[in-house]
Specification:
The structure holds 2 protein chains of 2 kinds. Chain A is mostly helical. Chain A is built from 13 helices and 2 strands; from the N terminus they run βαααααααααααααβ. Chain A has a domain of about 240 residues: Orthogonal Bundle (ABC transporter involved in vitamin B12 uptake, BtuC). The longest helix of chain A has 30 residues. Classes of the chains: A mainly alpha, B mainly alpha.
Chain lengths: ~375, ~325
């Protein structure tokens, strides 16, 4: 009779807490392998020397003082959105509607600038813009939350659809506000600068400093909110286990709606920074995919606001680098950064497995 | 003058890529994998097909063999989208990564892939306009029944399409049949609803998820190649595919995870997608933008209503979006 039992080649078990340096070692290895693969892909498909590519990528962010400030400015907007979606994610509420919430914030800002521009004092106007944009984003975020809380409607799909409703709303108003019939709103109040937020000059000469300072403060604020406030505690418990939350008397519905008001509101703030402080115009593309990129930024940082500065840097650094690449090498266009970002993300996403789980190989058994 | 026959034809042509996308995504979601990378998969499918067709046209120098001209792009399209499905499955099933993040990364990668190689081929072809025209290959793809044009409106509405359009309908009916009526479909649905129970019943959860995701991706990729070769007459322009991938995901919800409903629903969505072009020109442009919102609003209403009624068979698969680890309680 056959009494031998089959043991699999390996089995997978969950690790306990891994010391932080080993976790970072694994991530570092993943990043290194990803970069190697990126270099290989670059050489194979474009025939460019990979070292030249890396040099160009670094030049894209640190080549000149101006480029460096553009990097910081881009980082601040993306970080703002990433901070916005984080409280929702910690609650296991997959808010992929950042895109729409940013658009609504931007739309509200533009509306205030157009309707009240030159009619009310500038200070009051800017205050109205701040309130309106945050409120617009918050409402756009709270709608899916209400349905999730009351009827458990799938929030990923709901927020995704809300993006396109917002896009079309913006397209509608672009056509309403545009006088020439091209559907493009030009620079709003170009002569009076009414409603333009006071952009403080950064050392590079651009008016980026306000955005950077606001988002830096926000980072600290969100960190404290998540780590030390009662609200932050409640939403973490809801994320870990909804039943536990109910058992200890947390009103889950209220936490869900409250957190999404916050999440949407901060996305609206990003819209304000984009329209009121940076571009002074509105279009359907102002969000530029940041709502989706922010999901990855936040997740890569393990929902830690301070780590998010690093992951934001990584993504923006690559994007800026690819912009530089396309101007340096004729064979490369802007979309190349998406490919590189994709490859790096795949590796980092995959590496998390080796941090959470352990692979136990079958021990070599001696034949009797 | 509003030409209903023409409108229906356009709506169907517009709906076919959506039908492919949503059939593929439904199959994937039934296994519990929420693949938000479908827009990327469709881009890669389209681009792989274009690459295949481009090099075949270059090597054949005008003398295209119609069978090869269809087969080469089709196979490279299937291969490209299969690779995307494999990336997603390895990361989410084997490595248990977060599905939303993986899906979004896949979309970033796929759209980048399409636009990068699109740009590269445009340079290679040395054309002055930012697009590649593969009209010879497209002509092979677009062959329709010869007698269709002789049958008046009936021929126009029902028989005027290319083989990929009919294939889309057949595939979605087939997927619906497999999901609803076969043992494999039953097992697959069990995996999507409750993988732990399925595992206990001896169903290999990982294998089902892999197969469903990969086949689903390949079906979705076909939508990409249909768009380029048929709808766009072989012209690839960067970002031309637009947001159809997301609309396909919307369609999955709209059809409450039923590919057979998807056949008519996709044509309806196709009609809604182009409705704004047929509104009397007296109306201003702004209102037309509001009409483009309709497909999404309708989807939202369906999503909300199904969750309110809370009927089991209309809800999303219960473990949708969750990775399965056997030892987790």
């Amino acid at each position: 009779m056959n009494t031998r039992t089959h043991t699999p080649l390996f089995h997978i078990s969950k690790r306990g807490q891994l010391p932080w340096y080993r976790a970072w070692l694994i991530r570092g290895i993943a990043l290194a392998v990803a970069l190697l693969l990126c270099a290989l892909v670059t050489t194979v498909f474009t025939g460019v020397n990979p070292l030249g590519v890396f040099a160009a990528i670094i030049r894209g962010s640190f080549g000149t003082a101006r480029k460096f400030w553009v990097l910081l400015q881009e980082m601040s907007i993306l970080l703002c959105v990433a901070l916005a979606v984080t409280p929702a994610f910690m609650m296991r509420f997959w808010n992929v509607g950042g895109e729409g919430q940013i658009l609504m914030g931007g739309l509200a800002t533009a509306a205030c600038m157009i309707v009240f521009g030159d009619k009310v004092p500038n200070g009051l106007l800017i205050l109205t813009m701040v309130v309106a944009s945050i409120a617009a984003g918050a409402i756009w975020g709270a709608i899916p939350a209400v349905f999730k809380a009351k009827w458990n409607t799938n929030e990923t799909l709901f927020t995704l659809m809300m993006n396109y409703v917002a896009t079309q709303l913006v397209a509608y108003y672009c056509n309403v506000w545009d006088k020439k019939g091209s559907g493009i709103v030009g620079i709003i109040n170009p002569n009076t600068h009414s409603g333009w937020m006071p952009g403080w000059n950064s050392p590079g000469g651009q008016k980026y400093l306000l955005n950077i300072v606001v988002v830096a403060l926000l980072t600290v604020g969100v960190y404290i909110y998540l780590r030390y406030s009662k609200h932050g505690y409640e939403l973490t418990v809801v994320g870990e286990s909804e039943r536990t939350a109910r058992y200890v008397g947390i009103k889950v519905e209220r936490v869900v709606i409250r957190t999404m008001l916050l999440s949407g509101g901060l996305c609206g703030l990003a819209g304000l920074l984009l329209v009121g402080s940076t571009s002074h115009t509105v279009s359907t593309t102002i969000a530029g995919g940041r709502g989706f990129t922010a999901v990855m930024v936040s997740w890569l940082a393990k929902f830690n606001p301070v780590m998010m500065v690093l992951t934001t840097f990584l993504i923006v650094f690559l994007q800026r680098g690819a912009g530089e690449l396309s101007s340096s090498f004729a064979q490369i266009n802007d979309s190349f950064s998406d490919i590189l970002t994709g490859i790096i993300l795949f590796f980092i996403i995959g590496s998390e497995f080796f941090i959470t789980y352990k692979i136990n190989f079958r021990k070599a058994e001696k034949e009797a | 003058m509003f030409d209903l026959t023409f409108f229906i034809t356009r709506a169907v042509q517009q709906g076919i890529p959506l039908l492919y996308g949503s059939t593929g995504e439904t199959l994937t979601e039934k296994s519990g994998n929420l693949n938000l990378g479908i827009p990327g998969v469709m881009y890669v499918g389209a681009m792989s097909g274009v690459i295949g067709a481009f090099f075949y046209e270059q090597s054949a120098k005008g003398a295209l063999n119609p069978v090869l001209a269809v087969l080469i792009p089709l196979l490279s399209c299937l291969f490209g989208s299969l690779c995307m499905g494999l990336i997603y499955s390895v990361l989410t099933v084997s490595l248990r990564a977060n599905q939303n993040v993986t899906g979004l990364a896949l979309t970033t990668f796929g759209v980048g892939f399409g636009n990068f190689f699109g740009g590269a081929l445009i340079k290679l072809a040395g054309s002055d306009v930012p697009s590649i025209a593969l009209s010879a290959t497209s002509a092979c793809f677009k062959r329709s029944l010869p007698f269709a044009s002789k049958l008046g409106w009936f021929g126009q509405v029902f028989l005027s399409y290319s083989f990929l359009a009919y294939a889309a309908v057949i595939i979605s009916l087939l997927v619906a049949y497999v999901l609803k009526r076969t043992r494999i479909g039953l097992h697959l649905r069990a995996v999507g609803e409750n993988p732990a129970t399925a595992d206990a019943a001896g169903i290999s959860v990982g294998r089902y998820k892999y197969w469903a995701t990969c086949i689903g991706s390949m079906i979705a990729g076909l939508g990409g190649i249909y768009y380029v070769m048929d709808y766009a007459s072989g012209v690839w322009s960067n970002d031309g595919f637009g947001d159809r991938g997301w609309l396909a995901i919307a369609l999955v919800i709209f059809t409450i995870w039923r590919p057979n409903v998807g056949v008519l629903a996709s044509f309806l969505f196709g009609g809604l997608y182009i409705l704004h072009m047929y509104i009397p020109s007296g109306m201003n442009l702004a209102t037309k933008e509001l009409y483009k919102m309709i497909p999404y609003i309708v989807t939202l209403v369906v999503l909300v209503v199904t969750s309110m009624r809370n009927k089991r068979e209309n809800l999303p698969p219960q473990s949708l979006g969750l990775s399965y680890f056997r030892e987790e309680r």
